[in-house]
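Weekly sync, protein design subgroup
Attendees: M.S., D.O., the rotation student, P.L. (late)

Item 1: inverse folding check
M.S. brought a backbone from last month's batch and wanted to see whether the design step gives back something sensible before we order anything. D.O. pointed out we never logged the input encoding, so this time it goes straight into the notes. Structure tokens as presented (83 positions):
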């Protein structure tokens, strides 16, 4: 089972929120979010990236590594209201 797992990667998502009460049951919030704020590449598991190089002896060597995506980061600013 572990032979088919993709390598681990590090990713941090952040959410900051300030909420104000409005009456008995309402509230208003200002929100700032960031997804993948560390700008890390993510291993996709969708295949391999392979490249070939000619060796000094005239042969051909192929090296393969896991496919990656990114770095993709998504910032977000918003307002939420509940009544």
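Designed sequence read out in the meeting:
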């Amino acid at each position: 089972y572990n032979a088919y797992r993709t390598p681990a990667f590090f990713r941090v998502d952040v959410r900051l929120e300030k909420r104000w009460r409005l009456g008995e049951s309402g509230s208003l919030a200002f929100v700032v979010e960031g997804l993948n704020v560390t700008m890390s590449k993510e291993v996709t598991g969708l295949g391999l990236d392979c490249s070939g190089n000619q060796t000094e002896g005239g042969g051909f060597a192929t090296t393969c590594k896991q496919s990656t995506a990114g770095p993709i980061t998504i910032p977000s600013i918003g307002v939420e209201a509940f009544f």
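Discussion: The first strand starts at residue 14 and ends at 22. The chain has a mean pLDDT of 84.
Action: P.L. to compare against the previous round before Friday.
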